[in-house]
Amino acid sequence: MLRECWENVQRTKPLVHNITNYVTVNDVANVLLACGGSPIMSDEPEDVEDITSICGGLNINIGTLNERSIEAMYRAGRRANELGHPVLLDPVGTGASGLRTRTADGLVKEIHFTAIRGNISEIKTIATGSGTTKGVDADVADAVTEENLGAAVSFAKDLAGRLDTVIAITGAIDIVADAGKAYVIRNGRPEMGRITGTGCQLSGLAAAYLVANPGRSLEAVATAVTLMGIAGEIGWERMLPGDGNSTYRNRIIDAIYNMDGDMLEKMAKTEMF
């Protein structure tokens, strides 16, 4: 699975339209180039439908919202759905403010997303449509651990079934699920949390893998999550005395650039549930 999905990206060089936040836009573009894809960044409402039309997929990230970008997300999302392009949502900070929560909820209701990637808090908010969990979702902890892994996997599968999408919950332990099965991934380093934007980079990466692997959305996203985690491990191993989080960011991107199918399969810590 991993090698094949990786090879498909190298072969097809997917072009991805990104409506992403301005804190990490440059890193998202560089990660897409590093993985073998190609980025276009546009959030002007009058531009996005044309841009989405010439790309293979769409990555929507709500990290830095404004009225113009929200309109662009809806317009681009609708157009991508019309064209049958894969669309990924990264609901950054959903639940932290009313605007973010309303925007994510509205997008999920109006646009069909091929995949939704976020941390457990963000995904729980997607599940309930508010910052307060209730019902079955209240049983899901605020962090995925070995102790609550089974409950978290069940939650992800249930939500994936309800929304007809792939759910990717990323953290110390990653879960990528559709309604029928899930991959649990244990690659990565805790130090990745000291870099602004590793999640945003992963969303761009996952969008590229979705474009390059049609009909295999679950495997595509699981491969992207595994790849990012391995890159974090390799990048950390190459840190030198005096290096800091800025260097680490670059080493992660370099590790993605230098990845190959053998390395990906050898280092993967992935199992199916």
Percent of residues in helical segments? Answer: 40-55%
- Which term fits the overall shape? globular
- Profile the largest sheet: 9 strands, mixed
- Judged by helices, strands and strand pairing, the structural class is alpha/beta
Q: Could you give the order of the helices and strands? A: HEHEHEHEHEHHEEEHHHHE
Major β-sheet strand ordering: 2-1-3-4-5-6-7-8-9
What's the helix count?
11
Strand content: 5-15%
**Average pLDDT reading:** 94
Number of strands: 9
Contiguous runs where pLDDT drops below 50 for at least 5 residues: 132-139
| Beginning-to-end CA distance, first to last residue | 15 Å
- How large, in whole angstroms, is the Cα Rg? 17 Å
SSE order and pairing:
Blueprint: H1 2-12, E1 15-19, H2 25-35, E2 38-41, H3 45-54, E3 57-61, H4 67-83, E4 87-90, H5 98-110, E5 115-118, H6 120-128, H7 149-163, E6 166-169, E7 174-177, E8 182-185, H8 198-212, H9 217-237, H10 245-257, H11 261-267, E9 270-272
Helix pairs in contact: 1-8, 1-11, 2-8, 2-10, 3-4, 8-9, 9-10
How would you describe this structure to a colleague?
This protein is α/β, with parallel strands linked by helices. Helix content is about 50%, strand content about 15%. It has helices at about 1-10, 25-35, 45-55, 65-85, 100-110, 120-130, 150-165, 200-210, 215-235, 245-255, 260-265; strands at about 15-20, 40, 55-60, 85-90, 115-120, 165-170, 175, 180-185, 270. Strands 2-1-3-4-5-6-7-8-9 form a 9-stranded mixed sheet, with helices on both faces. Helix 4 links the parallel strand 3 (about 55-60) and strand 4 (about 85-90). Helix 1 (about 1-10) packs across helix 8, helix 2 (about 25-35) packs across helix 8 and helix 2 runs parallel beside helix 10 (about 245-255). The model is unreliable at about 130-140 (pLDDT under 50).
